[in-house]
Amino acid sequence: MRTAEPGRINAAFRGRLGNFALDVELSLPATGVTAVFGPSGCGKTSVARCVAGLQRMTGGFCAVDGDIWQDGSSFRPVYQRPIGYVFQEASLFPHLSVRRNLLFGARQVARAQIAFDEVVELLGLAALLDRSPRRLSGGERQRVAIGRALLSRPKLLLMDEPLAALDRSTKDEILPFLERLHETLSLPVLYISHDMAEIERFADHLVLMERGRVVGSGPLHNLHPIPLAGRRDRHGDCPPRRNSVGHRTRMTSMPIDFHDIDPNRVAAILYRSQDDVDALLAAVAETLVRSGERIGGVVQRNLKDGAGCQVGMEAIDLMTGREISICQPLGSGAMACKLDAAGLAEAAVAVTRAIAADVDLVVINKFSKQEAAGGGLRDELADAIAAGIPVLTAVPEKCLDAWNDFTGGIGTTLLCERGAIEGWWLDLSSRIKRARAARPPADAPAALLADHHVG
Amino acid sequence: MEIWSAEIRQSVLLTIELAAISTAILLVLATPLAWWLAHAKGWWTEIIASVVALPLVLPPTVLGFYLLVLLGPDGPGGWIASLWGGRTLAFTFEGLVIGSVVYSMPFVVQPIRNAFAAMGERPLEVAATLRASPLRTFWTVAVPLARPGFLTGAVLGFAHTVGEFGLVLMIGGNIPGRTKVLSVALFDYVETSRWREASMLAGLMVIFAFAVILTMTLVDKRAARAAA
In this structure, is residue A112 part of a structural domain? Predict the structure, then answer.
C-alpha cells in the first residue's frame, strides 16, 4: 500500500525496535478518530512517532491525504509536517505562560482554521490563560497541550496516550472535552491507547496491534471479526507457546499471543494481583450473561467496606445471578478472604448445573490457593473440561505451579496486562456470539465454538 | 589615594577587559560545542569532552608551555601575527585572550552542556511538532530553558579568567598595560615587597570571589524555585 491516496492515511514502516521488529502497513481513512490499540510495548507509540517524523525508519513510507511525507527517497522533517502531537505528558514549555504556549505553533500559521477564542472555549481554558504551566493541574496541562496542538492548524492530530498519565477522576474530566473535539472538528485523529474504555467512547476506526504488527484494522463497530480472520491466516507463522505440565513454565511477558488461547478448552489468564484481572473477568462475564449469552460458572468478588478494607468475599452464580455466599474474613488485619465450606459447596452445585445446561462457556474468575488445594471448584473445572465446555479462569502468578499440575498440559498460561485482556475479551465475546448465532437448535456440541481450533 | 595608583587601575581595567572579551568568545564557542556534546551519541563524544576538560586537570604551566610554543614566532600563532606585521602572539594581549579561552573552556562548556542535556529531547520534539524550525527551536526553547546554565557558565568563565596566574605568567609575561593583569601584578608587588599594594589587590580579589559565589548561589536558587 505504498501509494498516496487522497482522503486516506497510508503508512508502512518496517525495522528493528528494541527487542522486536516493527512491521506495520496501514491504510486508514483520513477522517474521524482512528484508535491504535494494543498492549504496552507493542509498537503503537512508534507508529505515531514515525508518522510524525519524530522517529525515522529508513525505507518507510508515509502519506496523508495524497501528500507524501516520507518515501524511499525523501523525508520531510517534523517541523514541515502539518501535524499536531499530544504527548503522554503535557510537555508544556515551562518558560512560557499558558497563552504563549497556546500561540507557540499558531504564530507561524497565517490563518487559523479554528481561532484562538474557539479553542479556548472548546477546552475551557479562559481562566488559565495568564497562568504559568507550573501552576496547572495535570488535567489542565493536558487540555492546554491539546489546545496548543490544535492551534498549529494540523491536518492530522496524533495523540499518544494523552490520558495514560492521569488518574481516573482527571481522565473523566478530560474525556468530555475529547468527545466535544470529535463532534466539533473534522480533523482526523490518530489516537494511541491501551485503554479500550477510552477508545469506545469516541473512536470511529480501530487498529489492533501486537508485537510490532497490525493484527486487525477496521471500523470500530464491526472490527472484532476482522482481526480473527487475519489471525487465522497468520496462525502458521507464529511459534507455539503452549506450556505443558512437566516443563519449566516460561512466563510470557507482554505482549502475548492471543491466538495461543484455545477457546475450546481452558484459557487461563495468568495475572499479577495488582492488575485485578479476576475482578475484570467477573464484570465482563456478568455483562455477557445479562446480554443473553449462555455462560455459566461462578465469579467471586472481594467485599469491601466504605474505607476500602476487605471485609469478606461473595460468590455469584452466573446463570441465575444469585448471590451464593458471603464468607469470612481471615482474622483481624488479614487481607485474604475465602469462601467458607457452605459457600464452596453451593458454588460447586452452580458449576455442575451450568455443565448440565451445556453452556457455551464456563467462567470461574479465580483459580487460587483454595482451588489448587482441591478445596474449591477443582473437580467441577475438570468436569467442564471433560464435557468439552471451554473454561476461562484467572490464575494469580503465585498459583502457577498448582495450575500446571491441575491442567495436565491442556492449559494455556499467559502473563498479561489488564489492557490487553480487555481487548481480547471483546474478541472472545463476539466469537461466542457468532458461534451461538450459527448454532443448530438442539444439543450442538460446544466444539462449534471452534472457529479456529488448534488441531 | 596614592594606593589606588594608575598602575593598579591599569591592571584592574586590563583584567576586566581580558575577562569580558574572553567570556564573550567563550560563550560563542562553547554554546555549539555544548549543544553537540549534549546531543551527539558516538563514542568519540566523550573523547572530545575529555579534551575540552583537560585544563581542569593539567597544571596551568603545562598548558602555558604548549600555548607558548603554539603562539610563539615558530608556531601557528607567529604566522597569524605576521598577518598584521607582528612577530608572535606570545606576550601580547591577543595571546592572553586565546590562552584564557582555552583555559576556561571547560568551566563554560560543562554547565551549558548539562543544561541542554537536562531539558531532554521532549521540549525540542514538541517545538518541532508545532512547526518551529530547528533554529527557532534553539532560540525560543533551548536557550531560555538552558538560561541558568548560560549564567553559571558565563560567571565561572569570567571569574576563572580573572583568577588565572600560571598560564598568564607563561604566555603573557608581565608587561604593564598589555599583559600585567591583577594576579600577576599581585605577585609582582610581593616580589618587590610592596605590601600595601599587595594587600589592597588581594583584598579586592577576595571581595570579587565572594561576589561571584554569592551571585552563583542566588542564580541557582532562583532557577530551582522557577523549576518547582
Answer: yes
Where is the domain boundary, A169, A195, A222?
A222
User: Domain for residue A416, yes or no?
Assistant: yes
Phi, psi of A15 (to 5 degrees): 165, 170
- Do A209 and A329 have their domain in common? no
Structural domain total, chain A = 2
Top-confidence residue, A296 or A87: A87
Q: What is the pLDDT of residues A149-163, one digit of tens each?
A: 988 888 999 999 998
User: Which residues, 6 or more positions from A133, have their beta carbon under 8 angstroms from its beta carbon?
Assistant: A90, A92, A93, A94, A96, A97, A98, A101, A141, A144
pTM: 0.64
Contact A27, A5 (CB under 8 A): yes
Question: Does A295 share its domain with A405?
Answer: yes
Closest chain B CA to residue A106: B130
Closest B-chain CA to A148:
B130
Of residues B51 and A272, which shows the higher confidence score?
A: B51
Contact: B125, A94; criterion CB under 8 Å: no
Domain shared by A329 and A377, yes or no: yes
Residues B165-189 have a mean pLDDT of: 87
Strand order in the sheet with A8-17: A67-70, A61-64, A8-17, A20-29, A213-219, A205-210, A33-37, A189-193, A156-160, A83-86
| The architecture CATH gives domain B6-227 | Orthogonal Bundle (1.10)
Q: At which of A187, A222, A257 does a domain end?
A: A222
User: CB distance from A134 to chain B under 8 Å?
Assistant: yes
Supply the CATH number for residue A351's domain.
Answer: 3.40.50.300
Which DSSP string do the residues of B163-182 spell out, in sequence order?
H--HHHHHHTTT-TTTT--H
The partner residue sitting opposite B128, judged by closest CB among A79, A87, A94, is A79
Residue A93 has pLDDT above 90, yes or no: yes
Mean pLDDT of all residues in chain A?
73
pLDDT of residue A171: 83
Give the whole-number percent of chain A exceeding pLDDT 90.
19
Q: Residue A114 is part of which domain span?
A: 8-222
Do the beta carbons of residue B123 and residue A91 sit within 8 Å?
A: yes
Whether A230 is covered by a domain: the verdict is: no
Size of interface A-B (CB pairs under 8 A): 59
Residues A194 and A339 both lie in one domain: no
- Residue B114 has a pLDDT of 94
Domain ranges of chain B: 6-227
User: Which residue from B129, B137, B141 is facing A52, i.e. has the nearest CB?
Assistant: B129
Contact A109 B228 (CB under 8 A): no
B131/A105 touch (CB, cutoff 8 Å), yes or no: yes
If asked whether residues A209 and A349 sit together in one domain, one would say no
| Alpha-carbon distance B26 to nearest alpha carbon in chain A (angstroms) | 25
